[in-house]
C-alpha cells in the first residue's frame, strides 16, 4: 500500500488520529533528514495527537541539490512517512508520522519560502543543517541565512513579531552559534535588521539525542514486508529519545512538556553531558573499531574491550569535563549509553560515525581535552582517540585496504596524516583544527605514544594497553 493521504485510513499500523487537513503551519524546518523526522517531527506528531496543537504543523524546506529527492518523496506521500523504532531484542514498532504537512524546495520558489517565514502564523524556524552548516562565508540569498533574514526583514517592515529560531544540531551552544551566524549575515546584507533581531528574536539552546542511522534498503523492505506499507523513505531509530530545550521563545511555543520534552532555563549542563559522553563516545569508538575490522556499531560496542574503553573514557575524562546535571543519574546515563551503542536492532554503521570528523572532533572531543588540561585532569584516552582518527585518516587500514575518508577537509587531512610517519605530530599541528594542542606536552606526548602503538601494534593491542594501564 503506497503511503499517502488517500491511503492513510487503510494503513495497517499506528497512524495519526488527528485530522491533518485542519493542521496549520506554525513551524518551518530547514534540513528534513532522518534525524529531524525521528526527533522533532515525532514530538510534534505526539503533540498533534493531544488535539490542542493544530497551529503547530511543520513545513519542511530544502535548500541543497541533494534535498530534491526528499522534496519528491514528500510530495508523493503528502508529507507522510514511517518511523521504525528498533528494539535491542530485535522487535520493531512502526508508526506513520503526520506532522510535516507541507514541503518546499527553495530553489524552485525562494519567494514562497520567504513569504511563509514572514507570515505571522510562522512562530518557530528550526534547523538541522549539520555541525558544519553555520558558516556564512559563502552564504547567499538562496541559503538558509539568506532566506530567513529576508523574511525577518519583511516582518520588521510589517510590524510583526519575530519567530523563534531553534537549532537542533549537535553543537555546543547551538542556539548561540545560530544567533551569531544569523546576526552576522544580517549585519552584512540587512544592516538595519541586526538590532531588531537582538531585541526581538530568541535563539534557545537545545540538547537533542536519538541515534538515527541512514535509511538502508533493508529498512524500506522491512516496512513493506512486515508492516504492509510502501514508503519511499522511512526512517529507523533507536527507541530512546531525548530533547532538552531552553524555555526562551519570541512568540509563544507548543506545549512540548506534554510530550516528554524537558523545558529548562539553561540547557548547558545537559548539552555538555550529551556531547561529551554520547557524541564524543561515538568518536572514541569508531576509528579504533574501523581499524580493528568492525563495520557495525553494535558489534564494536558489544565487544568487552571496546565497552571497557568507552566506560573508562566516560568516567575518567568525559565526566570530569561536565557541569552538575540536575535530575540526571550520570552512572545510569553512561551505562545506558553503552547499551544504546550495542543495540543490534539499530545496525548503525561505523562509517557514518567516521563521517565529517573535522567538524565532530573539534566540537565534541577537544573541549573535553581542553577542560581537563585546564584542571589538571587526565587526557590520555582522549589523545588516543585523536590518534585513532589520525591513523584512520591515512586512508589505508591495517590489512592494507583503502579507507574512503569522507570529510570536507579530506584533501588536506589525508596528506597530513600520511606525513606523520615521518613527523608524528604533523596531524595535530593543524592549528585551524587543534589550536595549540601540539604544544601541550601532556596531550602531545600521549598522542604520539598512541599513534606509535597504532602503527606498530594495531588498534586492538593499543586499546588493550590503554585499558590495562
From TrEMBL:
Keyword Oxidoreductase in annotation: yes
Question: Which GO MF terms does the UniProt record name?
Answer: mannitol-1-phosphate 5-dehydrogenase activity
Q: Which reaction does it catalyse?
A: D-mannitol 1-phosphate + NAD(+) = beta-D-fructose 6-phosphate + NADH + H(+)
Annotated Mannitol dehydrogenase N-terminal domain residues: 26-257
Q: Which InterPro entries match?
A: 6-PGluconate_DH-like_C_sf (IPR008927), 6PGD_dom2 (IPR013328), Mannitol_DH (IPR000669), Mannitol_DH/Oxidoreductase (IPR050988), Mannitol_DH_C (IPR013118), Mannitol_DH_N (IPR013131), NAD(P)-bd_dom_sf (IPR036291)
Q: Which residues form a coiled coil?
A: none
Q: Where is the Mannitol dehydrogenase C-terminal domain?
A: 266-454
Asked if the record carries the keyword RNA-binding, the reply is no
Report the protein name in the record.
Mannitol 2-dehydrogenase
